[in-house]
Design brief:
The complex is a heterodimer of chains A (571) and B (324). Chain A has 19 helices and 20 strands. Chain A is an alpha/beta fold. The longest helix of chain A is centred in the C-terminal third of the chain and has 20 residues. The mean pLDDT of chain A is 82. In chain B, 74% of the residues lie in helices and 0% in strands. The chains are: A alpha/beta (571), B mainly alpha (324).
């Protein structure tokens, strides 16, 4: 074999208008190798991969496949060179079966027969150890199953070079293990695999070599066995980053949010949150751990007033918020940000600019006029009166209009503070990369100066640096005395960041533990329901010693609430 | 009774052509509201070519059956493809709003047909239409010798059988072939189709042109067969066109169901001629039964909420490649 590289990129440059997405990038991958491509959000990883898969065409530079220079100008060309890309956002037809999606666009000269396709797909699945039901429709599939379909789709086309764009971002730990097993089998089979990911532990676990990009520039390639997480981070960020999350120590205030016996139903009518008790103090971060879909979303929505509460009490500073409309709850200082699996689905309008999205939350504020009181003193009385009246008139006149200027100012501040990569404050956010969109959402929620923050998966899919910016923001809020409910995925992060961790399993509270005393094993057992600490001290979790209400008042509130509920049911 | 069924089935062919044309178009993700105009265009194209043909042959009283049929069909198809081509260029290439383009096309098609028909009348080109119609509507052989069976199944002009055959073929193509799979993918998720190398725009053009050509045959059939050459009464074609679009929803985007649906609509459309009520109001009431039926089906489809009977997911949305 004269050339050991399956794919080589030399001095690739790509610009979009004034933005340089890639500059002189060199990359090479051998046969039977897994290469990790590492870089922060907006460092040009996806652009680079899109050039290999024929979606974009490089401005400068050369691409070699098996030592021969090639031009890839369309996705079809890429298929012909046996390159297959698995996109971060799946490109599947929902109402088609797995097999129909896999065979889509294939023109192999064989007579088209869905039965043959089914058996060929099953053969591929068996070879690499996928679990797949070829006849299942995409709309019935979980995220992990959809990903399997995407991977088989490129294998069916005979791809030898596979590119996976952040494949693990939306998978559970068990699904990630399964995916990695499959990838290793493919490597043994001589396939070349490029994997884009932010999670350093995954990079260390799966890849043979790591290539690093920073702000569109190629930094270098290292062998995984000869490097460390710290070195990789330094190459990626360009400076030393302390990989330790600090748990800010604060003096805890009195409980801000107290939840007792909360039950909430999901969309399908089943009980998604079941008799949950907890409280959050000011200056405290309460983590919520659990396998995806265990009632986290329903809990968030119940607190934010978006979902009907079946039973129980949610008290904010001693006042019930059940039955209140969402805008009143926001005015009370409770903010909720939920990052769903597809990251764009909730809370932001994709066609709106950052400014417009900021205004979605503050649209009630309009421009306020005030007169400088010092100046007024110098004026004669009648003039001062006129000035004041004019100001009042202006305030009334401007009432129907939103204050765009202030929103733009806030947007500019947010961009600066969170280092959001965007051409301007007026660019539609759907044009930003996933991580930057997320910063806008979380940033906006914190910006509104709440006293309780409910945040679900705020760092989902974010690179290390941005994640730490978000952790810092949360810690800053904590110092201000804000109570934070942090719904997370990564147990390591939660154990380092949170003060206490509550574990949900099928909507039940399995126990609340101090993060400093908890072990990962115990938390894992609690997540699967094998360990239930709540048996011992049931109901105690919702009872703070210094509750805002006395026991008698609680009983009173409970009665009031059930009376109200009956009234609502009768009505 | 047989008379009524016969009439219903004959009438259904107009619906079937229009409905099939719209199904094929909608499968590519394009909602063509220009179908009524395109069906009118079929009237113009068909009549113009028939008139030219009849004027060119030495003995206009005895034209050749095959040639007459082919010339008429070709004329209608050319007119349909022309109007469909305008729609396709505006919505696929220039990404104009589909609804507005379609509505404009309906207005344009109706007006354009009026001009052609008026000028045909002025030049005396319509004198052979009743002769041509007897040829085009000629029933199959043995129709009269087989009693009720012949009357019910064999007594129609060639175009009725063409409509049914097209519906069956379209159903098979959509369901069983690679082309059908690709077309459905384009209408469901053009980005997914594009990513696997399917030429999205080519499929869209193909579907719109094919659909428009088929729909145009409906107009030609209506004038030359259903009303037997009384070209002056071509105006209802536009109303039938709107019903055909409603019928697409009624048949849940399935060509095979469009045969049955069209017959039902045909029956509802012609039933007022067979019910001995003289009241205009009652007649008007009966004529809107098809619309009510469509609304009911639409409601039940959305209440059932099954993903299998929903319209193509990207119906009415133009595809911009850069929007990822």
């Amino acid at each position: 074999m004269e050339n050991q590289f399956a794919l080589e990129l030399k001095n690739i440059t790509k610009t979009f208008g004034k933005t340089i997405a890639n500059k002189n990038v060199n990359l090479s991958i051998k046969r039977g190798e897994i290469l990790s491509l590492l870089g922060e959000n907006g460092s040009g990883k996806t652009t680079l991969m899109n050039m290999i898969s024929g979606i974009y065409y490089p401005d400068e530079g050369q691409i070699f496949i098996n030592g021969e220079e090639v031009k890839i100008s369309s996705p079809e060309d890429a298929f012909n060179y046996k390159i297959g890309m698995i996109h971060q956002h799946f490109k599947l037809v929902d109402i088609f079966s797995a097999a129909e999606n896999i065979v889509l666009g294939v023109r192999d000269g064989n007579k088209f027969s869905i039965k043959d396709v089914n058996s060929r797909v099953e053969a591929i699945a068996n070879k690499y150890g996928f679990n797949i039901d070829v006849k299942k429709k995409i709309y019935d599939m979980s995220v992990s199953e959809k990903q399997t379909v995407e991977i088989i789709k490129v294998l069916y086309r005979g791809a030898d070079i596979l590119i996976l764009d952040e494949p693990t971002a939306v998978l559970t730990p068990q699904e990630i293990t399964k995916l990695f097993d499959v990838l290793r089998k493919m490597r043994e089979d001589g396939k070349s695999i490029i994997i884009i990911t932010h999670k350093l532990n995954e990079v260390m676990e799966i890849s043979d070599r790591v290539s690093i990009l920073r702000k569109g520039e190629y930094i270098g390639t290292v062998n995984t066995s000869e490097t460390s997480e710290n070195e990789l981070t330094e190459m990626m960020v360009g400076k030393k980053v302390e990989l330790k999350i600090t748990r800010t120590q604060t003096d805890f205030d009195r409980p801000l949010l107290e939840v007792r016996n909360l039950s909430v139903k999901g969309d399908d009518g089943s009980k998604k949150v079941n008799d949950v008790n907890f409280y959050i103090r000011g200056g405290e971060i309460l983590g919520v751990a659990g396998v995806a879909g265990c009632g986290q979303k329903e809990l968030c929505e119940a607190i934010a007033g978006l979902r009907k509460v079946e039973d129980g009490l949610i008290m904010h500073k001693g006042e019930s918020i059940i039955g209140k409309p969402a805008n009143e709850i926001i005015e009370m200082g409770i903010s909720m940000s939920f990052i769903p699996e597809d990251r764009l689905g909730m809370g932001l309008a994709p066609n709106f600019s950052i400014t417009d999205n900021m205004m979605l939350k503050t649209f009630r504020e309009s421009k306020k006029f005030t007169v400088d009181s010092e100046k007024l003193k110098e004026q004669p009385k009648w003039k001062a009166f006129l000035l004041k009246s004019w100001c009042a008139v202006k305030n009334v006149a401007y009432k129907p209009f939103v204050d765009r200027k202030a929103a733009r100012k806030r947007a500019t501040e947010l961009i600066k503070r969170l280092e959001i990569v965007t051409p301007s404050t007026e660019t539609p956010i759907r044009r930003l990369s996933g991580g930057n969109v997320q910063k806008v959402l979380v940033g906006r929620e914190i910006e509104s100066n709440p006293n309780v923050i409910v945040t679900a998966y705020p760092v989902r899919g974010l690179d290390i640096n941005s994640s730490y910016v978000i952790y810092d923001m949360l810690n800053d809020e904590k110092k201000k005395g804000t109570g934070i409910l942090f719904i997370g995925e990564d147990l390591d992060v939660m154990m380092a960041l949170c003060d206490k961790i509550m574990v949900l399993c099928h909507g039940k509270n399995m126990g609340i533990v101090h993060a400093s005393k908890a072990t990962k094993e115990d938390l894992g057992l609690m997540m699967t329901g094998a360990l239930d600490l709540s048996e011992k001290n049931k109901k105690e979790y919702g009872k703070a010693k210094d509750s805002n209400l006395t026991d008698e008042q609680w009983i009173q509130k409970e009665k009031e609430e059930s009376a109200l509920k009956e009234g609502r049911n009768d009505g | 009774m047989i008379m009524f069924l016969q009439n219903a089935i004959r009438c259904s062919a107009t619906f079937m052509f229009g409905c099939l044309g719209e199904i094929i178009t909608e499968k590519s993700g394009h909602l063509n509201l220009g179908i009524p105009g395109i069906m009118c265009g079929g009237v113009a194209g068909g009549c113009l070519s028939v008139s030219l043909y009849m004027g060119a042959i030495p003995d206009p009283a005895h034209p050749s059956y095959i040639l007459l049929l082919l010339v008429g069909i070709l004329g209608a198809i050319i007119a349909g493809a022309f109007l469909g081509g305008i729609y396709a260029f505006l919505t696929v290439s220039l990404k104009c709003n589909q609804n507005i383009t379609g509505l404009a096309l309906t207005t344009f098609g109706a007006g354009f047909t009026e001009v052609i028909m008026k000028s045909l009348e002025a030049s005396g080109g319509r004198q052979h239409f009743s002769v041509a119609a007897t040829y085009i509507a000629k029933p199959l052989p043995f129709a009269e010798s087989l009693g009720w069976f012949g009357e019910l199944f064999l007594s129609y002009g060639m175009l009725v059988y063409l409509a049914i055959a097209l519906a069956v073929v379209t159903g098979i193509v959509l369901k069983k072939t690679r082309t059908g799979l690709h077309l459905r993918a384009v209408g469901e998720n053009p980005a997914a189709a594009d990513a696997v190398g399917i030429k999205v725009d080519a499929y869209k053009y193909g579907a719109i042109l094919t659909g428009s050509s088929i729909a145009a045959l409906g107009g030609f059939f209506y004038v030359m067969d259903f009303v037997q050459g009384l070209y002056n009464s071509y105006q209802p074609v536009e109303a039938v066109g709107w019903l055909a679009i409603a019928l697409v929803i009624f048949t849940l985007w399935r060509p095979s169901l469009s045969i049955l649906g069209s017959m039902l609509f045909g029956a509802l459309y012609t039933v007022s001629n067979f019910i001995p009520i003289s009241s205009q109001v009652a007649n008007a009431l009966i004529s809107f039964v098809p619309y009510v039926a469509t609304v009911i089906v639409l409601l039940s489809v959305s209440i059932m909420g099954s993903k299998n009977v929903q319209p193509p997911a990207s119906l009415g949305l133009n595809y911009f490649r850069e929007d990822r």
